[in-house]
Amino acid sequence: MDLEKIQHEIAAQKLDGWLFFDHHQRDPLAYRVLGLSATRMATRRWYYLIPAQGDPAGLEHRVEPGMLASLPGEKTPYSSWSEQTTALRKLLAGHKRVAMQYSPHCAIPYVAMVDAGTVELVRSLGVEVASSAELIQAFEARWTPKALESHLEAGRRVDRVRAAAFDLIRERTRNGASLSEFELQRFVLDSFTKAGLFTDHGPIVAVNSHASNPHYEPSAATSSPIRHGDFVLLDMWAKLDRPGAVYYDITWTGFCGDNPSEEMRNVFTVVTGARDAAIKRVEEAAASGHKLCGYEVDDVARGFIESRGYGSFFTHRTGHSIGQDVHGNGANMDNLETHDDRRVVPWTCFSIEPGVYLPEFGVRSEVNMFVGDGEARVTGEIQRELLVL
């Protein structure tokens, strides 16, 4: 645990402290931020308070002493619920506003780990509970230079696999040979393994109306053939197969043949226009030092698509945080599914992936953006034209 950094972030956000709580290991964020081993199951509640200034302290149940032994500060034992309340009141004495893994109205479910009853308990002691969402970004979403390099290398490898997958589609459909969504999915996964990449699920290989389902994944039972005249969407994500690596996540689309329909070309232009407008917004904010929140990026992409008459067909957020999990714990580019008012902070990465999903086919164009110190950039190849396969 980096106590100095944690206290610096608490003070920067004008909080009195950060209160961690767990029961039955419901809050993995707490364990990661505190550097706390999760080898023992917490069958009783523990609390740990890090003040903006001064020494941390905690509460442990007498049945499970030593749960917080690796952390600095005094640990007060308790047994009964009344003893717990008294000890918690003492722990929080002098603190008016503390952060917890809580999100008002569950607007950011990624950090909503603390149950409502515990929040009520803390509030009953005269302490305001604030969301730790911005604090979590500082410890979960910000990359190191090593993490960035792992992402860039993963991107180079994934982009090669993506190109090979579309080459296989082109070869099979041009020659009239058979190829299915499921077979292509297995090709991608095998190629990931050979390239030293890891993914926890996917990829999405979707033909025609299947591409209208943003989270469709083929199986042996649901797979469709890929044939001449078909529209194809390929969404793939992977990271280097080593500890600490972070994901690279992209979506490209193509048409099996020489002449995509005018509607396919038009929707592709609308989607990539929204993507590029969102990219520009992030780049300009990073260059100027302007504060930018996740919902504002979503507004740009969504506004572009709505202005072209396809707003009702854009059914998901514009992008998500990327980290060691493909959906990370930083700001999402979202003002649809949630109102994400977290700042887009330096040394974080997220996807930009607007989409339009018509009944016959769906188009999504996904890139990854890394925000550094005074600059932002797309980290891999950008699809500029619908692939003609």
Description:
The protein has 389 residues and is an alpha+beta fold. The chain has 2 domains: 3-140, Creatine Amidinohydrolase, Chain A, domain 1; 142-388, Creatinase/methionine aminopeptidase superfamily (Creatine Amidinohydrolase). It has helices at 3-12, 28-34, 81-92, 116-124, 133-141, 145-175, 181-194, 262-288, 294-307; strands at residues 17-22, 46-51, 57-61, 74-78, 97-100, 128-131, 197-198, 204-207, 231-240, 248-255, 321-322, 348-352, 355-357, 362-364, 367-371, 376-378, 387-388. It has a 6-stranded mixed sheet, with helices on both faces. Strands 7, 8, 9, 10 and 17 form a 5-stranded mixed sheet that branches. α6 packs across α7 (181-194) and α8 (262-288) runs antiparallel to α9. The N and C termini lie far apart (52 Å). The mean pLDDT is 96.
| SSE pattern, N- to C-terminal | HEHEEEHEHEHHHEEEEHHEEEEEEE
CATH topology of the largest domain: Creatine Amidinohydrolase
CATH architecture of the largest domain: Alpha-Beta Complex
- Tally of structural domains: 2
Give the strand tally: 17
> How far apart, in Å, are the first and last alpha carbons?
52 Å
> Low-confidence parts, pLDDT < 50 over ≥5 residues?
none
3D shape: elongated
CATH superfamily of the largest domain: Creatinase/methionine aminopeptidase superfamily
CATH class of the largest domain: Alpha Beta
